[in-house]
Write a structure and sequence with these properties.
By secondary structure, the protein is mainly β. The chain folds into 2 domains: 227 residues, Thrombin, subunit H; 126 residues, Immunoglobulin-like. It contains 4 helices and 22 strands. Strands 1-5-6-3-2-13-4 form a 7-stranded antiparallel sheet. Strands 7-8-9-12-11-10 form a 6-stranded antiparallel beta barrel. Strands 16, 17, 18, 20, 21 and 22 form a 6-stranded antiparallel sheet that branches.
Length: 370
């Protein structure tokens, strides 16, 4: 696995980078006193540099760290601080990563850094709610649905039960206008599965958690940190900023006329309130090296005949999040490529109102069930 270098740095060094619109933020939390951190994979996905601050409420000291493990499928990542300036905590982290599944109706809360680049400050924010379902969107068994309010920047934060046990990792929320109080978290047993891939001495069993939320928060806030990800994705837009958070595919779907595949996209965009943008999927083969060219012009072609699916959107606020944004493309749009069908792929692009590219995702591979 390729190891990325992560710099844990003073928040003041971000000012010039933020002004260029190249930074997104998230939350992470220590899972051992020796500097092992958990977060969501999409928080650091495609990052060239990652800045983390706020451990022990210190926003002035910086450290070096490495990516220790990732689980793309479950949107999880483990980071390890490796810097002589970092002093391990003298006691274990004050929470347990719970191996069992929480129940519907259980109280829960999270601590994180929402909208830290939008003026909400550096003090860790606590919000609470209940577990409303033991499955996520489209009955995804790896997720909880919860009523705990979250915002941009909460991704990667810990989700606790009322006793202070970690029961999940906050991932995303449903941002449809008609949906309220719907957020999701990756279940903690998937986090433990990832931690257990590390050397046996990497994770240290923590002490039992306190049952008082207020006293628990006073300890938890020292072990939660803000993460700033500087993306290496190619950006051409000068008028807006966008981040592609998650992408996944479901096959054998119908638009009422023909069968095809649905691409689900979670993304954020700012600077485009009440302006029309577009989400586009560009298709490739040969592991993304060659654009997939259609045999003829059609509704699923770009002007250069590259096969693509496109759908417009209009953000209703300066910073908007879109969850489960669906692009449909029929199987008939794909040219038959014979033996090359095994390595098809696509990229997601977010276009601003000038059709400039505001964000581009990494490649997602798929196969066509001819």
């Amino acid at each position: 696995m390729k190891i990325k270098t992560i710099i844990v740095c003073m928040i003041c060094t971000l000012s010039g980078i933020i002004a260029q619109g190249q930074v997104s933020s998230g939350t992470g939390f220590l899972v051992s006193r020796n500097g092992l951190l958990a977060t969501c994979y999409h928080v650091i996905q495609d990052a060239e540099t990652i800045l983390v601050t706020g451990i022990n409420q210190d926003f002035f000291t910086y450290y070096r760290a490495e990516v220790a493990a990732i689980d793309r499928a479950n949107d999880l990542a483990i980071l390890q601080i490796r810097d002589p300036l970092f002093v391990p905590f003298s006691t274990p982290v004050p929470y347990v990563i719970k191996p069992t599944t929480a129940n519907v109706g259980d109280e829960c809360f999270t601590v994180g850094f929402p909208r830290i680049m939008r003026g909400m400050g550096t003090e860790p924010k606590l919000t609470n709610g209940i577990i409303s379902s033991r499955t996520g969107a489209r009955n995804l068994i790896t997720r909880y649905q919860m009523t705990t309010p979250i915002q941009s920047g909460n991704s990667g934060g810990p989700l606790f039960d009322r006793s202070g046990n970690v029961i999940g990792v906050v991932s995303n929320k449903n941002t449809l206008a008609e949906v309220e109080n719907v957020a999701y978290a990756v279940k903690s047993n998937y986090l433990m599965n990832l931690i257990e891939t590390l050397p046996s001495d990497a994770y240290q069993n923590p002490m039992s958690a306190s049952r008082n939320m207020q006293s628990q928060y006073s300890q938890i806030r020292n072990y939660v940190c803000a993460i700033f990800s500087i993306s290496s994705r190619t950006i051409t837009s000068q008028t807006s900023r966008a981040i592609v958070d998650n992408v996944w595919v479901e096959h054998f779907k119908s638009d009422g006329v023909q069968m095809g595949m649905e691409i689900y996209v979670d993304f954020q965009i700012s600077g485009m309130m009440n302006k029309q943008g577009a989400c586009v999927a560009w298709f490739y083969y040969d592991n993304g090296k060659k654009p997939m060219i259609a045999a003829h012009d059609g509704a699923y072609n770009m002007p250069d005949k590259q096969v693509a699916a496109i759908r417009s959107f209009v953000p209703n606020s300066d910073l908007s999040q879109f969850s489960d944004f669906v692009l449909f493309i029929p199987y008939s749009a794909f040219p038959r490529l014979g033996n090359e069908t095994y390595n098809l792929a696509f990229r997601i692009g977010i276009l601003d109102s000038n059709s400039d590219v505001a964000a581009v995702s990494s490649l997602t591979s798929f196969s066509v069930p001819w």
